[in-house]
Write a structure and sequence with these properties.
Helix content is 34%, strand content 12%. It is built from 14 helices and 9 strands. The structure holds adenosine-5'-diphosphate (ADP) and magnesium ion.
C-alpha cells in the first residue's frame, strides 16, 4: 500500500491481533472469550466453526457461532490477515440476510469471530432432502429464496465507503453450503472468507482458484479477475439446482472435467434435465449462466426484476410463508410439537379483537346461525388467532386467545345480521378480483440499474 492509495483509510491500522502465544486446540466446554463452546459444527479451508453460548451476568443468554482460524494457519501472518479481513468485512455489514457479527477476538493464539447463530438448514441439505423424496422445493418458495439471495447480493455489491467510492465487494462463494434457510423462511448468506473487496485486494493471489467447484463462474475457474457478475453466475447455478434438482455440472464426477466444462460453458440446459420447466425460467437461468460476464445480468437487481415479472405471469406468489411451509414439509422433525393453548371461554376475560380500521363488530345469534347457509357453526365458533397466519403458537399456557366470532367485544358493539356480512364479503371478493385483473393486464417494465459501469472500470 502506498501513500497515494486512495483506499488506505480502509486498511486496519491498529496493532496486529495475532499474539505471540502457543496455538491451542478448542474443545467443547472450553471458554473462549466470554463464550462457552458447545460443539464443533464444521471446518473449512481457513477456519473451524463452533456453536457456543453466552451467559450474561443478568440472565441474558445467547447462542452464538465462533469461527476460529485453523490451528495450522494461525501462525501464518498471511492467513491471520485474511481471516481478520473477513471478520472486519463481516462486522461492517448489516442486512437481514446476513448473520450479525458481534466481535473479533483472540484466544489461545487464534483469532476468532463471534457472530449470530443461525438455526437453519444448509441449502445443500434442502436439495438433497427434496431429492430423497423425489420432489423439488415448490416454485413459489424457490423464488422467495432467490429473491432474498439477490437482495442480499445487491446490498453487498453496491456498498460504498464513507467517501462514496464503491467497495466492489464480491462474495465469490455463493454455494449451497453457504446458504442457510431458517424454519420461518429466512435465508442467510454465510462466509465472506474469500470475499474480495478493494479493501483487501492482497487476499487472493492471481491464479489462485478458490470457491466451490460447480458453482464457480468460468472466469473464476480460470483464475481470472472477477467482479459482481461472478456472484450472478453462482445465483444462476443455484436457481438451476433448485428447479431441476441437480447442479449444472453434477453429471461430471472428475474435478478437471467440471473445471473444463465450466470454463467452456458446457452443461445441459435446464429443460434438457426437466422438460416441464417453463421456457421463461430457463431463459433467465441461461442468461445468469452466460459464459461471457457481459452477457449476464449486470446487477443482482436486474435478475431479481426478471424473476419477479416471471412470478407475476406464472401466477405465483413467492412469500416467506411459502418458504416456511416448504421447510416444514421437508423437515417435519424440526417442527416442535405445539402445546395446546388453554382457551378461556368466558367473555369476561376475553381480549377484544384488534381492528386496524374502524369496523362494526358483529354478534350472531344462535337462531341466525342455525338458519344460515354460510359457514358451519363449528367454523364460526373456532377461536380466531391474532397476527400472521403462521405465527408460532408459543409455549405460554396462559396465553389468551381472541374470543370466538359472536362474542361481544369489550365495551359493547352494534349487532349486524349474517346476511349483511355475506353480501359485504361477496362484494369485497368481486372488487379484489377486478383490481387483480386490471393489475395483471398492465405491461411491466424491467429496469436495469446502471451500476455496472462502476464495477467494470479498470482497477
Ligand atoms: N452463523 C452461523 N450460524 C449457523 N451455522 C453456521 C454459521 N456460520 C457458519 N455455520 C456453519 O458452519 C459451516 C462452515 O462455516 P463457514 O462460515 O461457511 O466457513 P468455511 O470457510 O469453513 O466454509 C457452514 O457451512 C454452516 O453450516
Ligand atoms: Mg463455507
Amino acid at each position: 500500500m502506498t501513500r497515494d492509495d486512495p483506499n488506505r483509510h480502509l486498511r486496519f491500522e491498529g496493532p496486529p491481533l495475532a499474539a505471540d502465544e502457543p496455538v491451542e486446540e478448542v474443545v467443547p466446554g472450553d471458554e473462549v472469550g466470554r463464550y462457552r463452546v458447545v460443539e464443533r459444527i464444521g471446518a473449512g479451508g481457513m477456519a473451524e466453526v463452533f456453536r457456543a453460548t453466552y451467559d450474561g451476568r443478568f440472565g441474558d443468554k445467547k447462542q452464538v457461532v465462533l469461527k476460529l482460524v485453523l490451528p495450522e494457519l494461525a501462525e501464518s501472518a498471511d492467513y491471520a490477515g485474511m481471516f481478520l479481513d473477513e471478520g472486519r468485512l463481516t462486522a461492517s455489514l448489516s442486512h437481514p440476510n446476513l448473520p450479525v457479527a458481534y466481535e473479533l477476538g483472540l484466544h489461545g493464539g487464534r483469532n476468532y469471530l463471534a457472530m449470530e447463530w443461525v438455526d437453519g438448514v444448509p441449502l445443500r441439505k434442502i436439495v438433497s432432502r427434496a431429492r430423497e423424496r423425489n420432489t423439488r422445493l415448490p416454485l413459489d418458495a424457490t423464488l422467495k429464496l432467490m429473491g432474498q439471495l439477490l437482495e442480499c447480493l445487491s446490498y453487498v455489491h453496491t456498498l460504498r465507503d464513507a467517501q462514496g467510492a464503491p467497495l466492489r465487494i464480491v462474495h465469490r462463494d455463493v454455494s449451497p453450503s453457504n446458504l442457510l434457510v431458517t424454519d420461518s423462511g429466512a435465508l442467510k448468506l454465510l462466509d465472506f472468507g474469500i470475499a474480495k473487496a478493494r479493501m483487501h485486494e492482497h487476499v487472493t493471489q492471481a491464479g489462485h482458484v478458490k470457491g466451490k467447484m460447480g458453482y464457480m463462474s468460468p472466469e473464476q475457474s480460470r483464475g481470472l479477475t472477477v467482479d459482481l457478475r461472478t456472484d450472478i453466475y453462482a445465483a444462476g447455478t443455484l436457481l438451476y439446482l433448485l428447479v431441476t434438482g441437480v447442479g449444472p455440472f453434477e453429471h461430471l464426477s472428475e474435478a478437471h472435467a467440471v473445471l473444463q466444462a465450466c470454463a467452456t460453458g458446457y452443461f445441459p440446459k435446464p429443460r434438457e434435465v426437466d422438460p416441464t420447466l417453463d421456457p421463461e425460467l430457463e431463459r433467465i437461468i441461461m442468461r445468469a449462466l452466460a459464459l461471457e460476464a457481459g452477457d449476464r445480468y449486470p446487477t443482482a437487481d436486474a435478475m431479481l426484476a426478471e424473476l419477479e415479472v416471471f412470478a407475476l405471469y406464472a401466477r405465483l406468489m413467492p412469500s416467506t410463508r411459502a418458504l416456511a411451509a416448504a421447510m416444514r414439509e421437508l423437515f417435519p422433525e424440526r417442527v416442535k410439537p405445539a402445546k395446546e393453548p388453554r382457551v378461556r371461554r368466558s367473555s369476561r376475560h376475553a381480549l377484544p379483537i384488534p381492528v386496524l380500521t374502524p369496523a362494526p363488530v358483529m354478534t350472531v345469534t344462535d337462531e341466525e346461525l342455525a338458519s344460515s347457509q354460510g359457514p358451519s357453526a363449528s367454523m364460526l365458533t373456532e377461536p380466531a388467532t391474532v397476527g400472521m397466519a403462521d405465527a408460532a403458537p408459543g409455549g405460554d399456557d396462559d396465553q389468551e386467545l381472541t374470543p370466538p366470532l359472536g362474542t361481544p367485544a369489550v365495551g359493547g358493539a352494534p349487532t349486524v345480521p349474517l346476511s349483511w356480512v355475506v353480501a359485504a364479503a361477496l362484494l369485497a371478493a368481486f372488487l379484489v378480483t377486478l383490481v387483480g385483473i386490471i393489475a395483471l393486464n398492465r405491461p411491466s417494465k424491467v429496469e436495469v440499474a446502471p451500476q455496472l459501469e462502476e464495477f467494470s472500470s479498470p482497477k
